[in-house]
Predict the structure.
Amino acid sequence: MNDTRSWMYRRLENGFITNDFFNGVEEFVNFAKMHPEIMCGETMRCPCNHRRCRNRAYHDEEVVKLHLCRYGFVPGYYRWHHHGETYITPEVEHWIGPSSSAQVEHVDHMHNMVHDIYNSINIEDEPQSPNDTAKNLYEMLTASETEIWEGNPNGHSQLSFVARLLNMKAKHHISERCYDDLCQLISELLPTENCMTNSFYDTKKLIKGLGLPVEKIDCCSNNCMIYWRDDIDLQECRFCGHPRYKPSLRRTVKKKKVPWNRMYYFPLTSRLQRLYASVETAKHMRWHNEHVQDGDAMCHPSDSPAWKHFDTTHPDFALEVRNVRLGLSADGFQPFGQSGQQYSSWPVILTPYNLPPWMCMKDEYMFLTVIAPGPSNPKNKLDVFLQPLIAELNELWSVGAKTYDVHVKKNFTMRASLLWTISDFPAYAMLSGWSTAGKLACPYCMENSDAFTLPNGGKTSWFDNHRKFLPMVHSDSIKMREELGRDASAYELFKITHQKKDGTWVDARSKALDAEMNAQFLEATQLDADFESPHNPTPEVQNELYILAVGGVKKRKLYGVGSQAEVLYPEAMSGRATHTRANSMDVAAAKAEAAAATSKVEELTRELTSLRQQVRYLMEHALIDPQATSYDDDSTQP
């Protein structure tokens, strides 16, 4: 190390990078490589002054050198604490001077304050030893990693061998008694000094040391309640009165009571702590904060507006990047298939989204947390089985759990939050409590839904409600604007979205509406001077006639355009287009006059027909001389 670090901020001289800076960068990189515990594999933190780095992003050696030569060091980084340095040498202390030393001391105090307030990790401290929970785990793993017998060719340990057997037991439905016999047989076949477990009970004791327990909670057979916490000693349901246990046929024999129903809950905290206890996963739990978004592309939930809004709303939670963000999904399935016994089971799965996308969607990182029992669908009582999970999530949010991060070898307080749920529409109703049936089924529209009941079938329909979810200026309107050189009218936009490429219409209503619009154009040709031709009215007139043809605006929406009409055609929707309104009034008056004239012609035609019949009657009975009367059937006079 140089006697001073003045070279760090004397990068350029006459526009060129100095030799001292080149040599100093080489020295810095070599110093960082001497502390592999701070590095992430072959990459290290980049201390350049680029806004995306600044000791947050990890790069390889060559990229770090290039960034430092291009952008220089981040200001005030005289102490390389991000790269393994735990103290400042006396020479550097002497060179920095009182003012710079005070600046560094101020930085230390700021770190300590943040550490005290938010229980965040202090990266300037020396590596810490694991807490008691993590220490017990590591000791158990070390003990169980001993070979099943010394010198076995495949290198199986006691833990790996037992885990393989348990997997076979679950896969092939092996009974406990058969498992015990199998363990004893394997133990007899192995050399005398082996570590093989002798029974299923011994295997469970070994696995229990992993700290991944399961809680079996009795519940009411009608899904009214679970016997948990304050209700753990109840003998019957306090809602329906159904007994907790099945009746015993032999009252004289003391036998363990069997509940009518039972749920399974797998605690979440211990499994989240395991993500930081493993070297393979601990370094990836920061990925959501360290990756750089590619423009506007969303490749991970951390790029979404919901994630960013949550960080803005809860800055104390977002300050610790190792806090866990979770997503919950639930759905039902029949474990015995469609042809077997009718039994509906509902698993609840949690996924940590701190991990990169190629990891968080893997099976091993989808944590089965709750198994709601059957045989019937819990429907709106699913929340009864979620009580243990909700209590643990509240505890993780408000208090947190002491966790050891093996990647940086430090303890921190891990908190967790549930960002969203992922489910189909029926499960959405069960999780949220919002009914997804009937006119108010849409949880977005709620009471503003456009659903209507079919007059004949009586079913609820949401036809033509999809366009209101489009962007305010969607692609169809932009395309028409580019082609026409102006904003498209509502009728022109309707033709684009409802007419197929072969010229046919998507349904009979669209075809009838187009015919009615053409008829209105022909009728209004002689009444409106703005019409250059029957098929070329102004956009304002088209909007007004289209609104009349579709029956007006209903619930702030227009048929064929949806809620976009308020943004695209505000004048026509608000009724402030006086010119087109006058034109529409003229058209309406012309329609009324035409209808009256048609009625008058029909009346005169009926009178003329009656008069012709009377003349024929007189001629047939010789009451009128045909010679003296000139009558023509095509004439209007006898």
Confidence is low (pLDDT under 50) at residues 87-125, 529-534, 576-584, 633-638. The CA atoms of residues 225 and 231 lie 9 Å apart. The radius of gyration is 40 Å.
